[in-house]
Design goal:
The chain has 9 helices and 10 strands. It has 2 domains: 10-48 and 59-241, no CATH class; 248-370, no CATH class. The strands form 3 sheets. Strands 3-4-5-6-7 form a 5-stranded antiparallel beta sheet. It is of the alpha+beta class. Strand 5 (190-200) and strand 6 form a beta hairpin.
Length: 374
């Protein structure tokens, strides 16, 4: 098992680069700028110094991040109502406390779960196996300390890139899964500790390795035992999955990248157009120095002028940028917020705007009902 704990699922290897790209597109700002070389296309035979200057001037207009945040806040505008059945007061007390503080950090359960459209299939939530309330033996939770004598149950959220390997049965239920995390500490020198936790239906095992000493051997088994859901035969991980139709980032990512490259190309061309290039029409050899502190001597038949683009291609590029921006909102079912001519915000009536949001409300209801429940 020690030799297999580092193995990655083929689907994981195929998606890992995609997740990094989507997180950059969602975050924008400095995170995107630091990785701009991954997204700003270099022209064929473009000089290196010109490309580096374009990278330094690169900017990103983050539409998709705002769209996803809007959906997340709208979908969870009202907190879910939790109802309990039965007369076990200890269980009620435990679940009330758990709902108010689901991760031992004061986060309510309604704020804990991932936002729709941002995180994708493979994201998981771990119900920590050694921190469930003690079982009274007759199927009732006592609300006391867990089997290891630590504390009550709590949740931890793992992004898709943390779940590196898994196996499922014929019904699509998890049979086992491996979660990998890293912890960095800064002292005299930076220390990186990598941790693997393998769950199956009965047991869990924790492996650790100091990356500074990675050459000394593989991960070391530091803890193992039966987890709290062993009696139920369930892996203590809950998978949250959205259908492809609700994966907003996947719908708009290519449009955002096209908009990013085209808007930066237009901005670069306009900037270069501000520095007009002098042109001398002459049959004689021209070797004079041009500048504000110099003079220019021309012959009777010589002419002097400046080059300036006529701007027709810029008009087309600007119109295309507007269309791309509206398309980003359209594929995310928010054309009413695009702000361009197609949105008709300037002349639409209140009833018309309300109908525009009808599709958005349907998508929000679909996001809420299609989430896989634990």
């Amino acid at each position: 098992m020690v030799h297999d704990i580092e193995r990655e699922h083929p689907d994981y290897r195929g998606q890992s680069g995609l997740w990094a790209r989507y997180r950059d597109l969602y975050a924008g700002g400095e995170q995107f700028r630091q990785n701009a070389a991954e997204y700003l296309v270099r022209r064929s035979k473009e000089p290196g110094d010109v490309y580096r200057e374009r990278l330094e001037r690169a900017f990103y207009e983050n539409y998709i991040g705002s769209i996803i945040d809007w959906y997340a806040t709208t979908l969870f505008r009202r907190e879910p109502i939790l109802t309990y059945e039965g007369s076990d007061e200890a269980a009620r007390k435990f679940f009330n406390q758990f709902a108010e503080d689901s991760d031992l950090r004061g986060t309510p359960m309604s704020e804990f779960f991932p936002a729709p459209g941002h995180r994708r299939a493979g994201d998981g939530t771990e119900l920590h196996p050694d921190r469930l309330p003690a079982d009274s033996g007759d199927g009732r939770y006592t609300g006391g300390r867990g089997p290891a004598g630590r504390s009550r149950a709590y949740l931890s959220s793992y992004p898709a890139e943390s779940v590196i390997n898994w196996g499922k049965d014929d019904q699509g239920e998890l049979e086992w899964a491996v979660v990998r995390t890293e912890r960095r500490s800064h002292g005299v020198q930076e220390k990186v500790e990598r941790r693997w936790v393998r769950f199956d239906r009965k047991r869990y095992a924790v492996y650790r390795r100091d990356e500074a000493n990675a050459k000394d051997g593989g991960p070391e088994l530091v803890e193992e035992g039966p987890h709290a859901l062993a009696s139920l035969g369930r892996v203590p991980l809950v998978e949250f999955t959205f259908g492809d139709g609700l994966w907003l980032m996947n719908k708009a990512a290519m449009l955002q990248l096209e908009h990013f490259n085209k808007s930066n190309a237009l901005a670069w061309a306009l900037t270069m157009g501000l520095f007009a290039m002098p042109v001398v029409y002459s049959e004689r050899e021209f070797n004079q120095i041009l500048g504000e502190s110099y003079y220019l001597q021309l012959g009777p038949q010589d002419r002097f002028g400046w080059t300036e683009p006529e701007g027709h291609v810029y008009e087309i590029a600007q119109a295309n940028l507007e269309r791309l921006r509206e398309e980003v909102y359209r594929v995310c079912y928010l054309l009413g917020q695009a702000g361009g001519p197609a949105s008709k915000n300037g002349t639409a009536s209140g009833l018309s705007k309300q109908r525009d949001y009808a599709i958005t409300q349907e998508v929000l209801r679909g996001s809420a009902t299609r989430r896989r429940k634990p």
